[in-house]
Amino acid sequence: MEKIVVFSNMYPSPEHPTFGIFVENQVGLLQSAGQAVDVIVIDNPSKGKLTTLKKYITWFCRSFMYMAKNRKRLSLTHAHYAFPTGFISLVGKKMMGIPYVVTVHGGDIDKMAAKSARIANLTKQILQQAESVIVVGEKLESDVIGRFEVPESRVHVMSMGVNTSIFKPVSKEEARKGLGLSIEENVILFVGNVIEAKGLLELVEAFALLKKSTPEVELFIVGSRKDTNFFEVLQTFIREKDVKDIHFKEPLGQVDLAQWMAASNVLALPSHHEGFGLVALEAMAAGTKVVATNVGGLPFLLGGGAGILVEAKNPVSLAEGLRNALDSASMLMNETVIQQKIAENSYETILQDLLSIYRSAGKGQVGHNE
């Protein structure tokens, strides 16, 4: 069987088990189907100029050496994030003739490409030279085709998928019993990096507004606090607002996260920008309502009654959305649409779509057992 190699600047490690876990999950999905996959990745989220420079130079060198050694056995490379990761695949194609696929996740288009004209031009070249460009949401599809002039025929919308064997409906009573939560309390859950762009300042303010009409409510914030400066700002903001019942938890493994999602009344995702919103899909699969901002790929995922969309950077709108979600009588979700979204993004569907893209892009037989 022809081998592929996955490049990513985000990948989990024992010390950082949730860092780029969606990439690891996709690699595992491919391997479970019998596809030979190697990974050359960065699994350390540490920042700082010297640390970042060292780890990226090491990663680029390892990647280049790997391609040079394995060029005859490689069918293709798959880069997660257009820049900087896609640059490795671009070099592999130009110097060694190895075709590549690149997955655009959002930040590489919305933020990284906006840093400078040089990065924007490199991003455009990376996307245009790829055999296929995978985008995790419809908004990114229009950006890649319109802004970066990639032919529509080479752009594929495909999320990272939801593992429905883990994220599945469990009774609130059962889930809460295992977590030691009161069955009567209203529970709002946030899952994601504790950074400003995730809308956490607005979430805290919205929660403070919600507490005035719904005092029996708690907010759990689950995620990495790698931006220590913002975390201090957030803590100060909470004290200034004098709002109680906000709890912080470190990142969780997927089994534990699924239990928290099933135990919660609502998942809040107040992001300023979001390529797709995988945690929203996971919450839907766990049978939990989602309140999210109307940005990026979220209106495509939550439209048609699959969730509640609110205005970005607007605590009043967010508070109203959360209040409506907690009022089960007034806000019923469209279960048919929800199940359709889950089916479209299940691991089974994603695997077949991904292998099909690989077969079209690769120079050898990909995705077939020998």
From TrEMBL:
**What Pfam families does this protein map onto?**
Glyco_transf_4, Glycos_transf_1
InterPro entries recorded for this chain? Glyco_trans_1, Glyco_trans_4-like_N, Glycosyltransferase_grp1
An example of a GO molecular function for this protein is: glycosyltransferase activity
Q: Which ranges carry the Glycosyl transferase family domain?
A: 172-329
**Which superkingdom is the protein from?**
Bacteria
Please state every residue range assigned to the domain named Glycosyltransferase subfamily 4-like N-terminal: 56-165
Residues in the signal sequence? none
Q: Which PANTHER family has this protein been placed in?
A: SULFOQUINOVOSYL TRANSFERASE SQD2
Name of the featured protein: Glycosyltransferase involved in cell wall biosynthesis
Source organism of this protein record: Sporosarcina limicola
For this protein's source organism, the top of the classification is: Bacteria, Bacillati, Bacillota, Bacilli, Bacillales
